[in-house]
Design brief:
2 copies of one chain form a homodimer. Chain A is an alpha+beta fold and about 210 residues long. Chain A has 2 domains: about 100 residues, Glutaredoxin, CATH 3.40.30; about 110 residues, Glutathione S-transferase Yfyf (Class Pi), Chain A, domain 2. The first copy, chain A, has 9 helices and 4 strands; from the N terminus they run E-H-E-H-H-E-E-H-H-H-H-H-H. In chain A, strands 2-1-3-4 form a 4-stranded mixed beta sheet.
């Protein structure tokens, strides 16, 4: 039985691939694992049936036999641990790839989420115009450090891993802001991620849902 | 050889236990693993020797033989995977505990970090007084969902796990704001975490550094 993930019935981004189901679809495509998708409306996400799967009323979730998981990072890690292709065999390299997964969601994504919040939830506030450059500078601090670490390598630590999958996914949220172009090596890194056949399949699958 | 972690030479919180080395100390104490600590100054954290260990110039790091890790979540997971006491034996329960680790750092902590940023980095801004209640409401959204999920259980999913260790640590950042008291079950949950002997040892160890 293939696993079942949940995704937005209609993603707020209209199919740009920024909803977090894309990250899980991408992981499943990288390891060649077929999956099924159950679409959930905004309303249904806040109802008991979905809350039983996801305490914070979000997508994606992951169901496989009697296992039910929530939280994108842990779903991607679960897939990566059980199938070849997303984590190195060497134990130390494997632990470092997992460090990059956590760095993506706990160090790089928080200032990016703050930017998204400022732009969307606080767009009508009188302070937002003056505040946005401060938030953007906090994003730049992280991008500068990340670019220094990446150097001229293709991926963060050796071969492509679940750490890169998560980091590229997090950085994709910045595409529309233009700030990635200030860091050409990061823009190229994201483009390498997007060029992967598995990413393309994941992207097209979510786009098909949102443009149907 | 015991592992070596890094911690602030002088923590910005003066020893309240909110610096992230406390999370790693707590994990090591839970599994009964002795460790050594190398203290790092703010200045040294931004220098090449430390950046080679931690790309974002932060603490903690973790060195054990030829393994060097950064990012608290991955260090705690690494410890939890290699020693009994922080992850269930059952594979499904283990995957769910890891979901809670990611939920702590990627769903619950981001609005809390936003609150900390508003209070510290934007304390002198003209908008902060009016904006803080909005940020606090986003924190409350998460706390309400978390309290609903915890119910009257002691821990998030069965026995105490690395998921609880991370969640309690994230919630501790809210202690000073008083907002935890609006959710008595969460305040009690945090207090249960703090009452664990391993937490107490970790807390005292970091306090000793910061009050020496």
């Amino acid at each position: 039985m293939p696993p079942t993930i949940t995704a937005f019935d209609r993603s707020p981004d209209g199919g740009k691939g920024l909803a977090r189901d894309t990250r899980v679809r991408w992981a499943l495509e990288e390891v060649g694992r077929p999956y099924e998708v159950r679409l959930v409306s905004f309303q249904a996400m806040k109802e008991p049936a979905h809350l039983a799967l996801h305490p914070f009323g979000q997508i994606p979730t992951y169901e496989e036999g009697d296992l039910a998981l929530f939280e994108t990072g842990s779903i991607v890690l679960h897939i990566a641990e059980r199938h070849a292709g997303l984590l190195p065999d060497d134990a130390n390299a494997r632990a470092r790839a997992i460090s990059w997964m956590f760095a993506a969601v706990n160090t790089v994504e928080p200032p990016i989420l703050e930017l998204v919040t400022a732009r969307i939830l606080e767009s009508d506030k009188p302070w937002t115009k003056e505040r946005l450059p401060l938030v953007m500078d906090r994003v730049r601090d992280r991008l500068k450090q990340l670019a220094a670490c990446l150097g001229d390598a293709d991926w963060l630590d050796g071969a492509f891993s679940a750490g890169d999958l998560m980091m590229v996914s997090v950085l994709l949220r910045l595409r529309a802001s233009g700030v990635l172009d200030e860091y050409p090596s990061l823009a190229a890194y994201v483009a390498r991620g997007e060029a992967r056949p598995a990413y393309k399949r994941a992207f097209e699958a979510q786009r098909a849902v949102n443009t149907r």
